[in-house]
Amino acid sequence: MTQISTMPTSTMPYKNAVLDDQQLQQALKKINPKFGDFVTRVAGEAWGLPLIDQKTKALIVITVDVVNQNLLGSGTPFAAHVDMAIKQGVTRAEIEELLLFLCVYAGFNKAAASFGALDEILTD
């Protein structure tokens, strides 16, 4: 599994969580160079939309991962999205509260698996 930083690399959140994060872009290119370039362009444009702030977008992508159970293993985005959220100022406590909230709407089993994955990601 790719090692994820649990501390922001700067004191200020990125203006664009995809386009401003060179570490993320390199990780995407390691999956496949064309895939990395494509995802950077498309996701970068989506993350650049102005009405929803970067922190909220980071919480939304974590929600999508929970609902789809894209949590651990090769090619799954949950660890990258947790890292992205932390870089945007989201705390572990906020992620945990989000997972509790999602118990009601996504299902208790999905939330339980997500808590386990979160623990694994943040203790590595």
TrEMBL record:
Residues 33-120 form the Carboxymuconolactone decarboxylase-like domain. GO terms for molecular function: peroxiredoxin activity. Pfam families: CMD. Coiled coil: none annotated. It comes from the Bacteria. This is Carboxymuconolactone decarboxylase. It comes from Hyella patelloides LEGE 07179.
